[in-house]
Amino acid sequence: MSDSSEHTQGHVRPAPESFIKPDLVASISAHGIDDERRGLLKGAFASALVAMTGKAVAGESDPNIVNVPEWSKILGKSVATNPYGLPSKYEANIIRRQSPGLTQTDQASVAFTPLQSMFGMITPSGLHFERHHQGWVDIDPSRHRFMINGLVKTPMVFTMEELMRMPSVSRMHFLECGANTALEWGNSAVPTVQYTHGMLSGSEWTGVPLSLLLERAGIDLAKAKYILAEGADGSSMTRTINIENALDDCIVAYGQNGEMIRPEQGYPLRLVVPGVQGVSWVKWLRRIEVGDQPYAAKDEASHYVDLMPDGMQRQYTAIQEAKSVITSPSGGQKLMNQGYYCVTGLAWSGRGVVKKVEVSADGGRNWHEARIEGPALPKMITRFNFDWVWKGEEALLQSRVTDSTGYVQPQRTELIAVRGTRSIYHNNAIQTWRVNQSGEVENVQLG
Ligand code: MTE
Question: Whose CA is nearest to atom 8 of ligand 1?
Fold first, then answer.
């Protein structure tokens, strides 16, 4: 579904939950400040909270006790009303969204994840972003086959049943499209984090390690340098992956977040290539060929290359470098009143683990370490939180990640100095959200 009116006016009406309501304050009013929270509250920040919450805790009676709501007096719905559970009807605004006008057809298109409304590090499967080159298909698993050929002793064809009887692993990894944040290479083009960073998801993937399948087929390790992964959809998506990645942590996956992969995500089989850009995570996977040179397929010779300032194209830049973004407060939201806010966001690195996240409220002049809400797993999105008291001043909110290799996420000006502004892919620059004195938050670019 697209909401063209909101988007083309350059203003996104925040979803009800995405207003930064004094949620936390309300919940503290209702429940009191627990010990763990009290440990976090210090100095001006603690006094601000006490000032905001004191009256409510002391004086007001609970309206739900005085005025018992109807749901406390009825027989609720029966157990099988929703044989497959659905979100509350009050959450109907939290959906994947297309960016109107971005693509010419709805099949070769993208629908973005509402990052501003997510908690923790797992993306609900129904909100996982979608990026298809020629629409999605719902394949009959009993008719699906997966083949391994090329530089192997015994070319093999597997049924789904055979694959699902093999030893499996479950691993949590992020999936980020190489084109995520593409619209930010030029001017700040889109108003919300859903559109700037919403081609990003985190899931638990289950399947057979690719290394095991290649071993079963008798891979010729002396000659094998690359694999080609091929999808069964109409786009004939094919991608070259180097053999080090293939033998390391790739998974031929059928499970996502505890159930079968959703059709939009490649049911019944997709390749999981941890840390590598999304296009290599071939969906509806039907074949892997082992070879001794890169295949220069259509999806890697003319697309998914980086146009450099000197006019040359950079090819096979697969790894998603360390990146982070504040998801709330973020563009399109509004701070309703002064006081405490939990600045929250996501950080990730295709090269390893998130080691440190810092937050700045003044456009990068001063940095403060954020809390990493573990576990921080390799090649997985990691949640961070930062306690902030807004006193009504204009603020420039930024986050900056350092990964386990020591790499520090660059400011936009630093990235552009190397890459220019004509790229589409691999924009991992620091994102800035300006909080105006009115409390409105907007996407801005500094420098
Ligand atoms: N695999 C096939 N077979 N067809 C596709 O169109 N899109 C690729 C990749 N795998 C694609 C594909 C791209 S560009 C991305 S970013 C990811 O799948 C998106 O995965 P998702 O739709 O599950 O988010």
Answer: 279
323-444: in CATH 2.60.40.650: yes
> Does domain 97-314 sit in CATH 3.40.640.10?
no
Q: How far apart are CA 292 and CA 277, in angstroms?
A: 22
For 283-330, the pLDDT digits (tens) are: 999 999 999 999 999 888 888 888 899 999 888 888 999 999 999 999
By most ligand atoms within 8 Å of CB, the mutation choice from 102, 115, 205, 281 for ligand 1 is: 281
pTM: 0.88
User: Residue 74 has what pLDDT?
Assistant: 96
Q: What is the DSSP letter of 182?
A: G
426 lines ligand 1 (CB under 6 A): no
196 phi and psi angles, rounded to 5 deg:
-75, -40
The best mutation among 97, 107, 132, 137 to test binding of ligand 1, ranked by most ligand atoms within 8 Å of the C-beta, falls on 132
Q: What is the DSSP track for 67-112?
A: S--GGGSS----TTSSSS----GGGTT---EE-TTSSSSSSSEEEE
> Can you tell me the distance from the alpha carbon of 116 to that of 97, in angstroms, rounded to the nearest whole number?
12
Buried b (16+ CB within 10 A) or exposed e, 273-309: bbbbbbbbbbbbbbbbbbbeebbebebbeeebbbbee
Instruction: Considering the chain, tell me which residue range(s) the CATH 2.60.40.650 domain(s) occupy.
Output: 323-444
Name the percent of the chain lying above pLDDT 70: 86
- Measure 297 CA to ligand 1 centroid, in angstroms: 15
Residue with CA nearest ligand 1 atom 9: 279
Q: Which residues contact 50 (CB under 8 A, 6 or more apart)?
A: none
Amino acid 235 reads S
- Alpha-carbon distance of 314 to 300, in angstroms, equals 10
Q: Is 400 in the pocket of ligand 1 (CB under 6 A)?
A: no
